[in-house]
User: Which sequence fits this backbone?
């Protein structure tokens, strides 16, 4: 997993509340367990019309938001079914941080497990970021070490995060990476077991 320390990037405002995981990545894109390529299905029904043409006024299709790496979202983002493809699709599209007033629990966990930072701010703070992102300057800074978000105009907002999750994000440790930190102890245990209980090796 890629480490997350500080992100300076363009922010796209998506003010809709209760965006569920089927809207983030519709079911027809769930036939793969590969993470690469899922970005093409991100917000598919918002980005494209039934004929497959881009909907010009959808925020991520607008020229000024191309290449956005931060999404300013409405309340209860990521509700619905527990599909890990949702953070995969966001990250494959280039979104590395989502800022909202709240996230569905499973989506929130999936974000941390895959290196996408979900930031919870107060409603009035998200509203400020949303309004500023709709203006001419779309650049924000998200600093995980300092636990701050700096708006395009320079306003600074602080966010809370579980210290264990923060440490893992800063080091780029997913569940496998965390386990591999104890690789030497695991090897020693397996060697001792092989000697003391050789029948388990068959």
Assistant:
């Amino acid at each position: 997993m890629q480490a997350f320390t500080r992100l300076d990037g363009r922010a796209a405002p998506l003010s809709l509340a209760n965006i569920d995981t089927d809207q983030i990545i519709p079911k027809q894109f769930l036939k793969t367990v590969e993470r690469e390529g899922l970005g093409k299905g991100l917000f598919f029904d918002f980005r494209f019309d039934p004929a497959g043409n881009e909907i010009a006024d959808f925020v991520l299709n607008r020229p000024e938001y191309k290449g956005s790496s931060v999404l300013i979202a409405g309340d209860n983002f990521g509700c619905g079914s527990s599909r890990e493809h949702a953070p995969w699709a966001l990250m494959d599209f280039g979104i590395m941080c989502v800022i909202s007033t709240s996230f569905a629990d499973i989506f929130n966990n999936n974000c941390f497990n895959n290196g996408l930072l979900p930031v919870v701010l107060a409603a009035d703070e998200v509203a400020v970021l949303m309004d500023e992102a709709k203006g001419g300057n779309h650049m924000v800074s998200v600093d995980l070490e300092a636990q701050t978000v700096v708006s395009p105009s320079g306003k600074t907002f602080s966010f809370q995060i579980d210290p264990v999750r923060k440490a893992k994000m800063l080091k780029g440790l997913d569940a496998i990476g965390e386990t591999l930190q104890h690789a030497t102890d695991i090897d020693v245990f397996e060697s001792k077991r092989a000697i003391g209980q050789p029948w388990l090796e068959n």
